[in-house]
Amino acid sequence: MSASSVDLSRFHSIIAIGNPIVDISAEIDSESLQKYELKWGETVFANEKNYGFYEFLEKKPEVTYIPGGSIQNTLRTASWCLGMEEENKDKYSITMLGATGNDGYKDKIMEALKSSGVKPLLQSIPDMSTSRCGVGIFQKERSLLTEIRASNCLTDEFVKEHEEEIYANDALIIEGYFLQEKFDLCKNLCTEFKKRNKVVILTLSAVFMVKVHFDKIKDIANLSDIVVSNMEEMEAFAGTEGEGYKVVLEKAFKKLEKGDRLFVVTDGGKGVVVSQYNYEKDMVDFIMQSFPEPIKTEEIVDLNGAGDSFLGGFLSQYMKGRSLNACCRAGNKASHIILKSVGCTFKKDDKIEFGK
């Protein structure tokens, strides 16, 4: 399949599976980072050495609680860009599949999803706490401490019980993080969606996910129609770095079985590349490259959720059948708004003019 023959028919309903998380966000200093053995710009999982970080954040007077998690951020952004809380709630459908505890964190997630027009399909796990992420911010950089709790307990029985609602959707998004504990469940969903000739989308989520769980990522990528990542994640998947995006993409495509899939790869201010492999010519077709408008350093508040919101903006226009260039522009614009906010949040006066 060549670039000129890309099927631009779209879907109107999405269901995504991932970790519903509440972000606990506050400003910190470098000393606190060292105390809890965290790192700037990286995600670390909770252990006995850093567990006190959550209490440290929650004692801060300026602490904020923001519904987060990669997929939840993406879905809320897509819904916001589509105006689903207003005029388009009957035209499009976006659903979050996952699990929470039965606590105050769950209430915040349910409220955020419903208010943004996203349907919650969340299993409530008794005697478990909702997953959370401690977000420490210092001079616009961030450190993330994630504790996956109830979301790891989503059951096959719950999915089976709601399979009619799940498979009624046109597309499935798999959050790469979710493959750590729920690979079999995710693969079964992907396989069933493909049997029904529906769309599967995979996010690589993080460099460590690709390196530690490469076989799981590759297995789901082979079932996917769209693979989304940033450049560092794609380099990890390709097994190379510093060779330029053309080499990275070619090596990444060759890791997978033949298929008419798209790679959507973001690279911060360097833009986004949407590409596809031409197996007849044995080369990468560069469908397009899109560059975001410059953003002033002083305008950036928080990098948290920028990549997630890009995908949300991209998908919002993809669902409308817009060109890939328009999809990328929408993703860049949504990401810009999130960069100017704490976490993945939108202000009432935030508006995006998508154009043609």
Per the principal axes of the C-alpha atoms, what is the gross shape? globular
Terminal CA distance reads 26 Å
For the largest beta-sheet, the strand count, sense and barrel status come to: 9 strands, mixed
Give the number of DSSP strands: 14
Strand content: 15-25%
SS content category? alpha/beta
Helix content range of the residues, please? 25-40%
Gyration radius from CA atoms, angstroms: 19 Å
Quaternary: single chain
Residue runs with pLDDT of under 50 for 5 or more positions: 1-8
Element-by-element helix/strand order = EEHEHEHEHEEEHHEHEHHEHHEEEHH
Give a description of the structure:
Helix content is 36%, strand content 24%. It contains 13 helices and 14 strands. Helix 3 crosses helix 12. It has 356 residues and is an alpha/beta fold. The strands form 2 sheets. The protein has a 9-stranded mixed sheet with strand order 6-5-1-9-10-11-12-13-14. It has a 5-stranded mixed sheet with strand order 3-8-7-2-4. The N terminus is likely disordered.
